[in-house]
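Quick one from the shared queue. A colleague (R.T.) flagged DNA gyrase subunit B as missing a structural entry in our internal table.

Convert sequence to structure tokens.
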Amino acid sequence: MKKTKSIQNKSNYTAKDIQVLEGLDPVRKRPGMYIGSTGPDGLHHLVWEVLDNSLDEAMAGYAKNIDIALLPGNRVQVSDDGRGIPVEKHPQTKKSTLETVLTVLHAGGKFGSGAYKVSGGLHGVGVSVVNALSVYLKAEVCRDGAKYQQEFSRGKPKAQVKKIGSCRGSGTTVVFEPDPLVFKEIEFDTTRILQHLRQQAYLTSGVKIIFADRREKTPETYTFYFEGGLASYVKYLTNGAVPKHENIFYAKGEKDEILVEVALRYTEEFEIYEEGFANNIHNIEGGTHLTGFRSALTHVLNDYAKKNNLLKAGESLTGEDVREGMTAVVSIKIKEPQFEGQTKAKLGNPEAKAAVESVVTEALVDFFERNPQDARGIAEKSILSAKARKAARAARQTVLRKGILEGLALPGKLADCSSRDPEESELYLVEGESAGGSAKQARDRRFQAILPLRGKILNVERARLDKILDSKEIRALVIALGTAIAEDFDIEKARYHRIVIMTDADVDGSHIRALLLTLFYRYFKPIIERGYLYIAQPPLYSIQTGKGNVQYAYTEEGKNRILRELKKGRKGEGNQPVQELQGAKIAGANIQRYKGLGEMNPEQLWTTTMDPDNRILLRVTVENAKEADRIFDVLMGDEVLPRKKFIQAHAKSVQNLDI
């Protein structure tokens, strides 16, 4: 393996390294083009853009410490001990280089004469976009023993850069406050930031990243520092799962000036989890580097299986077979990354595919030779996956034959709606025949369909697809949805754009809801990603005062609030104590606790839970796919101890628990 050459010495990072390509004006007009959206994703993207500049310094070997803090007043501070952005006059703009970097789009070290060999953030592109979308931004630079400062508002400098004192060492600090005219809701998510910082610390081994939430009087501080790099990251990602082999595969090499780093581990799980990075940027939609990795993996495992007579003549393993149960991270460093969109969701460099394929092929062959037991375990898991795939295909062909896929034979228990427009159609998944009957009477037949589910469906976390399709309830659901499943899945064929899980507010109802959520997450994830999946919120209590005067409470706090208001209104009629007695008359009110949907008559069910004008629906989303994956493994998997620990840790936060 070739070692990465030294980038450039410190003295060569000057104004001439900053080349200007175009102005900054378009950013405020179309912010979504640069940060993806003006919602929570775009808001946090501002943090990533400033952080990327500090990570560029770390990848180049000039920074060892990065500090990030959330400050009061919706402000964020990012500091590093890199070289510091140059402050001398820029030859092209005739302004200070610091001002140029912060106010001109595409003005950065990445475009200059080699200040960075590789770059994640474009060191000038991202930070200028952040400046344009911030009501306030302050940059402080320490260089050559002097500290400089400049302030901005919505991308415009408030004054020229000025020297404010002396300092030791070097580095850059940026403080910014997102513009409320651009971002309607400004609320930074600590969990999301911590996950991103942990990820970056694994990718940049040897760099210390410290995060502090200073919005409260007692700030919380977290430190990330990992020497193990990607191998440590994969170990972290697979924590709690049963490994299929002892040694984590790790490879690092260089091909055509592209530095490739890969780590992977197989576990007893069925799910595939991959992450791809180019210059430390998480490419959520993958790209050519992941394509090269998959190609190498499939090729090497097929060669190994055939060489060791593990496959019959004419048989071969598919890409899905060799990746089942695999957790892998692929990271490359490349001079000129070609991303699709400013948010860098997908890598497009064709040369990245060849580089990753070459490095992984050579390293994986060597790994198999040095670790024969690990190699056999991985190969046997892939072969078992291939057998299960064939069995699942046969099951799908039985269940999802052509007539059913075209909607000619919908399940008999489905009470379908008359509308054939998926955008207005709703499917309610209801627990039990009793609640199903009530829901069928309550619904608006024009756009609401009802599918009663008998008992608890199969736990798909513990079964392969061929076994899953043996379940009558799951087969009925698959046919009703119209999307098919697994390899045949097509989100465009969804018959309903609102799928509502409606279960009782008790332990059994919660379990059925968890089973359904597991099914959708594992086999219908695009339905969640499109925002089609919801959870109904039936009331817990009805509180009746007088004839026909009924209020509904959806939480314990909601019930107590209604009772306090009733008590306050009846002070003149005697100070009767408010007690929590089910079905008793309290302060002149009759309280009924609903144990199940079947206890509500159709009119009540429509009014509280199904009427679009009154109902409360929770949309199911997945912010952090890997964390969701881990939670499903803990709650629905075979291992008892992790589930016990999870329940003990979260028991105090459970509300409305029926025992």
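DSSP finds 21 helices and 23 strands in the chain.
The two ends are 61 Å apart (CA to CA).
Added to the table.
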